[in-house]
Amino acid sequence: MNRDTPIIEVKGVGEKTRKLFQKLNIETVGDLLHSYPRDYEVFEDPVQIARAVSGEIQAVYAAVCGIPNEKKIRRLTILNVNIADETGTMVLTFFNMPFLKKVLKPGGFYVFRGNVQRHGSHFTMEQPRIFPLEEYKKQTHCLNPRYALTKGLTNGAFRKAVRQALSDFVFEEEYYPEEFLRQYGLEAERRAAETIHFPADRESLAEARKRLVFDEFFSFLFLLRQNKRFSDGLENRFRMFETADTVRFLEQLPFPLTRAQKKVWQEIRDDLGGNRCMNRLVQGDVGSGKTILAVLALLMTAANGYQGALMAPTEVLAMQHYETICGYVKEYGIAFRPVLLVGSMTTAEKREVYAKIASGEANLVIGTHALIQAKVTYRALALVVTDEQHRFGVRQRESLAEKGESPHILVMSATPIPRTLAIILYGDLHISVVDELPANRLPIKNCVVNTSYRPRAYQFIARQVEEGRQVYVICPQVEEGEMEDLENVVDYAEKLAGVLPSRIRVSYLHGRMRPADKNRIMEEFAAHSIDVLVSTTVIEVGINVPNATVMMVENAERFGLAQLHQLRGRVGRGEHQSYCIFVSAQEKEETLERLQILNRSNDGFFIASEDLKLRGPGDMFGIRQSGEFAFRMGDIYTDAAVLKQASDAVDRLFQADPELQQPENQKLREHLKNAAASQVDFRSI
Ligand code: ADP
Ligand code: MG
């Protein structure tokens, strides 16, 4: 059994389970073993009700008092259950679980585990899990892995499959040179893989994690370095001259470029007209106006008689760019003949577009990564702009080179990362920074609140909608069962529709929907046929709906600050005052302090550097990393030290043996060849 063995060959995995795993993009044993636990649940001893701490997941052992009380609010059934121990009482609330009425007998004792909230002397818990005491005791104090699940697949079934796969898996021989293992303190891959799924304690877990994170960073940085070596040697085959087109376009624009935009535009122009092929990153906070810079570079390309491509990470964003640019063509008569190319188009539609690209009839191609696939032949592709996904950029140079193309590459990124990390992670690119926002922006008003604030937030949302505005609500999960104690998009949308006045149109969006459905929902939101959009972070990149003025983020404690900042960038894009409500289900001081940084600043770089200061190797789990640098396990913030080690290791390797020709590097070379293939699987959004 190896990484490519189909999952169906794992003992105990049948057709039904295979389909469920497939929903989670787990097709092979390698995928399964790389699906690391989201976190580890530790069942502590139950606490007395009077000692329960607000905002924390805890267990109490208590008796059911009286008959549960059921209420119906439109489609929602709410069950309230009173419980008591010798120290106090607590009210449990369950949504849409009417069958519990029969299960929870008055006088029966159970362990209830969930998020405790305290309001004065009054304790509550929403949707706790229920255990008989004996069953709970069996599980206390272990580190139980919790996986990202889907409806129908239980955590137990997932664990069983992993355990079985681990016992039949044949691991590669150690591929790092001896001295790396010693110097960086890395344990064997096999041991790490086993421990990460079934840790004995926190110390061994940390060791395991270190090896896996190092592996991930190392192969990524190796690829980056290879890429740099390759592109540094490329000569500019598409030398461009500035024409009247860009000058005229700039004069016609309703606003002048900011000083920062002007500076970066100059850097881009110098590259396009210089001796070497451009390989540049434009980094700038959300809303700093990067799109216009991409448009200018593409216009210069078209005016010089070449073709340009603009690549976005999602179809929705690609379509939005397409519309913006068609708008410019109409309004300013600029020299683009644009086409759109996305995966969800029909074969016939695609064929027509391919023909236009091949003949040169189209001089600007806008789309998703579909536009650099093998089937697309360009007539004279001179510039590829990648919006909001640097990792795209890393691989695309190679894919393009394989097709015999070596265009200029311009990567746009809104992910503000601290400079020390940027030097490592963007090591293959020259960096331009747009460090200024257009002057006409109203700062966003922020607040960080706990869950008891929700009713007021909903009222506020309702009022904004009455005034004609639109609202985003972000939840970390897709559907119920992934993780019980986190808000999930599907149920939340239903709950919200029940609570808000019925004329308010609520809908939802998540990454597992089919692309066509995602597009439809986004278009409806953009066209204002939806008022409130409940979504996972799929909307974090680039979407522009200037009428949206409220961003409410549930379980904000689960997200990295950079990502929250990115989400916040979805509002405040129009003329209306915008608001951000960060709801934390945790009331720990550190958590609130971290979130308060967002309250104090709207500057992405400042936020990122503060986040780096506050997060250390202690926060191994639970915080979602920001999209652009989402590694499977490594987090560029909490694992910054390992990132530096991996970078150091790659440096040394490149100094000593860049082609990996030495016999002691043979195994590493084989390994990296395979790893490179899996690096391509950037998270599809
Ligand atoms: P981002 O850098 O996040 O991609 P966009 O390019 O989407 O930002 O720009 C955000 C908004 O700001 C757009 O509506 C754009 O037209 C506008 N904009 C860009 N540059 C300027 C400027 N110099 N002055 C005023 N508005 C600008
Ligand atoms: Mg953008």
List keywords for this structure.
6-stranded parallel β-sheet, 23 helices, disordered C terminus, 685 residues, binds magnesium ion, single chain, 18% strand, 7-stranded parallel β-sheet, binds adenosine-5'-diphosphate, alpha/beta
Short description:
With 685 residues, the chain is an alpha/beta fold.
Q: What would your notes on this structure say?
A:
It is built from 23 helices and 21 strands. Residues 680-685 have low confidence and may be disordered. α7 (189-197) packs across α8, α8 crosses α14 (390-402) and α8 crosses α23. By secondary structure, it is α/β, with parallel strands linked by helices. 40% of the residues lie in helices and 18% in strands. α19 (561-568) links the parallel β20 (548-553) and β21 (579-584). The protein has a 7-stranded parallel sheet with strand order 11-12-10-13-14-9-15, with helices on both faces. The protein has a 6-stranded parallel sheet with strand order 16-21-20-17-19-18, with helices on both faces. The chain has a 5-stranded mixed barrel with strand order 2-3-4-6-5. Magnesium ion (MG) is lined by residues 290-291, 387, 542.
How is the topology of this model organized?
Blueprint: H1 15-23, H2 29-33, E1 39-41, E2 57-73, E3 76-84, E4 89-95, H3 100-103, E5 109-119, E6 122-126, E7 129-131, H4 133-139, E8 144-146, H5 155-168, H6 178-184, H7 189-197, H8 202-232, H9 244-252, H10 259-273, E9 279-284, H11 291-303, E10 307-311, H12 315-332, E11 338-341, H13 347-359, E12 364-367, E13 381-387, H14 390-402, E14 408-413, H15 419-425, E15 430-434, E16 445-450, H16 454-466, E17 470-474, H17 489-499, E18 506-509, H18 515-526, E19 532-535, E20 548-553, H19 561-568, E21 579-584, H20 589-600, H21 604-614, H22 640-656, H23 666-679
Parallel strand pairs: 4-6, 9-14, 9-15, 10-12, 10-13, 11-12, 13-14, 16-21, 17-19, 17-20, 18-19, 20-21
Antiparallel strand pairs: 1-8, 2-3, 2-5, 3-4, 5-6, 5-7
The structure holds adenosine-5'-diphosphate and magnesium ion.
